[in-house]
Amino acid sequence: MTYSPSGLQIASGGSDETVQLWDVDLGQCLAVVEDRHGEIRRIVWNATLNGTYFSTCCANFIHMWKFIEEEDCYQVCLHWSLMHDRLSVSNTAIRNAQGLSKINTPLLKQHGAVGDPISPLSFLEAGKKIVGMAFVASNLKLPYAKSQE
Q1: What are the φ and ψ backbone dihedral angles of 16, each rounded to 5 degrees?
Q2: At 40, is the secondary structure helix, strand, or coil?
């Protein structure tokens, strides 16, 4: 059992292979997610700018679910799923994602992800940016406080 980042919901799971989402104040079950890949061993919440997600772990599977709250309606949608030897992606955008390797991008696109990530900088490009920023910073006329002795 674990609290959502807002503290307004609780997610619980167990041997029945389901996750139940509960309203803390009302004690009501908001949604039931049927994982069906074994006993739920762990649930972890994550709030991002793009929404609230929770991950479930059971046997050889990890699933990430998107928790959507609209007025009095609650939905849970599978965001992605990972088996020990397979990756499944659903409704995933990688547009402007940073840090994806040259292998991850085509793999994610092959599994239905859309958009183009930001290409990683080479060491040469990163070095040029740092030198440029240092040059600009050195030319700024910033007031400084004299040290008081």
Answers
A1: -80, 5
A2: coil
Place of tokens 């996750």: 19
Phi, psi of 118, rounded to the nearest 5 degrees: -80, 125
pTM over 0.70: no
Please give the full DSSP string across 73-127, using - where no structure is assigned.
Answer: EEEEEEEEEEESS-EEE-S-B-TT--S--TTHHHHHHHTT-BS-PPPPPPHHHHH
pLDDT tens digit sequence for 21-71: 999 999 999 999 887 778 898 999 988 887 898 989 887 788 888 898 888
Smallest Cα–Cα separation from 63: which of 85, 39, 88? 88
38 contacts 59 by C-beta, under 8 angstroms:
yes
The CA-CA-CA angle for residues 100, 104, 110, to 5°, reads 130
Buried b (16+ CB within 10 A) or exposed e, 8-40: ebbbebeeebebbbbeeeeeeebbebebebeeb
71-125 pLDDT, tens digit per residue, is 878 889 888 877 766 666 666 777 777 667 777 778 777 777 788 877 766 667 7
Q: Is the dihedral of CA 70, 74, 75, 76 positive or negative?
A: positive
